[in-house]
Design brief:
six-stranded parallel β-sheet, seven-stranded mixed β-sheet, 323 residues, globular, 29% helix, alpha/beta
Amino acid sequence: MGEAYVMEMTETGGPDVLVRTPRDPRAPGPGDILVKQTAIGLNYIDTYHRAGLYPVSLPFIPGAEGAGIVEAIGDDVDDFAVGDRVCYMGNGTYASDYTGPATGAFKLPQGLGEEEAVAVLLKGLTAWMLLFEVRRAAPGDTALIWAPVGGVGSVLVPWASALGVEVIAVTSSADKAERAKALGAQHVILSSDDVAAQVRALTGGAGVDVSYDSVGKSSARASLDSLKPRGWWVTYGNASGPVEPLAPTELVIRGSLNMTRPSLFSFLDTDAARRAAASALFGALRSGTIKPYIGQRFVLDQVGDAHRAIEGGKTIGSTVLIP
């Protein structure tokens, strides 16, 4: 076994601020588990922490999800045992080992590998939040989904389609458009086109019920202009930068639109909510409604390259980091 280590940042900035640092894992306290990690998820929010868009206390270890084998448990942990395969949400998962609350962990169902688990955990729970909690999707809805072949999009598109939603996807290239169609999108628009005009043409001038927008600054206006009266703009990411301030009158003049900026953990604030969300996610996996899609893997101590790839729009599906 190699030395235990973390990928730590002592300042904000570009990918090079993430530095491999030897660090023994913390022994599990009451309610904790210690896991030897075998796979770690990469999420766009990791780049926000690294760059300083979302302020953090320094020094800081990024990462919000992982999977591996339980090596030790703390007092008052009854649901897990040494040797269990688990995935989990937590803080500071850019590490060879992870110690954190057992309340954020889930035993892996038989047949689901650790890499596949981190490929869908936070991204799949985000899709669950968007479809069932923020605004419940219903058969006959029309939805505009940005970045349909990214980590969240590659789960959101097939899940929405399975619920009877007509999906109009917006992506950046012909290759990604083909992938979006394979995932279940009924229509695909290139982001270089006049997106709102294309949406109006596809919907007979009506617009869509909801826009699931993870792009942010560069997509905001097109999302707003694509909605039908009383439609929903769900802005949940900032891949192109933060959305510029918006006057409430912009919502009024387009027909009493609804705007929301949800955060997943606001919907996972109790143990019951976490269990219900995981049950829905694992059920969708078990039924084949959604499938893990790992587009690329990086060794953890080369995570800077992974950040460059995701920020440069060069990733498809989920990215997995291997300690």
